[in-house]
Amino acid sequence: MKVSAIIPAAGSGERFGExxxxxxxxxxxxxxxxxxxxxxxxxxxxxxxxxxxANVGSTHRDVLSMSAGKPVKVVxxxxxxxxSVKNGIDVSASDSTLVCIHDAARPxxxxxxxxxxxxxxxxxxxxxxxxxxxxxxxFSENGLVKETLDREKIWLAQTPQCFHKNKLLQALYxxxxxxxxxxxxxxxxxxxxxxxxxxxGDSNNFKITTKDxxxxxDIVAVRQAQGTVL
Length: 230
Ligand code: CTP
Ligand code: MG
Known about the structure:
alpha/beta, seven-stranded mixed β-sheet, two-stranded antiparallel sheet, 7 helices, binds cytidine-5'-triphosphate, binds magnesium ion
């Protein structure tokens, strides 16, 4: 089984205030940290990074310096995250059967999460890393609580999200024909009725969305360098 990792890094960082994927964390662009873990992973055969079209050339030059024998391709992303992912799949090796999608903005993914999300695809159409909700979740409409959801059933989705490539392509095609936009690829797979397994994630695998998250990432990066991460 051949696995293609897709790292969407083509967002505009609206909530962050800049293209966070290129901001330096411990002296290296954010997406480098994420890419490095996939380069080191024993479970990944090739990597495709999707970046804004203006950054394709410079990113390609940068990754050449670190690719350590594993094939890395750089493509232009699209308007929506799912478009960036689709552009990545389009250049993936024709004999890869699984895709493992991971946000560039989650630089603290672990080899264990990559391995467990890939393994979980053996008995399902896909697998998503998530963490069980610690808080009670309210479903709201117009600022009023409509319903309190059963916390035992609530998971907060992270990445990696791994899928059988042929099924994800079907889901992306279906989304295109039905004009569906998902905040993640799992939502598009779910809309097709595919089975998606949940894999317990890690609180350090948080996504850098706002400046507050950057402060946390800076702390985790320093602690990792000191070997004192919890
Ligand atoms: N992403 C992408 N292509 C897009 C949109 C998002 O590749 N058209 C990537 C981002 O670069 C990021 C990941 O998807 O690594 C998760 O997205 P998010 O945190 O929402 O990043 P942005 O879309 O950049 O941020 P915002 O939504 O605040 O604009
Ligand atoms: Mg976004």
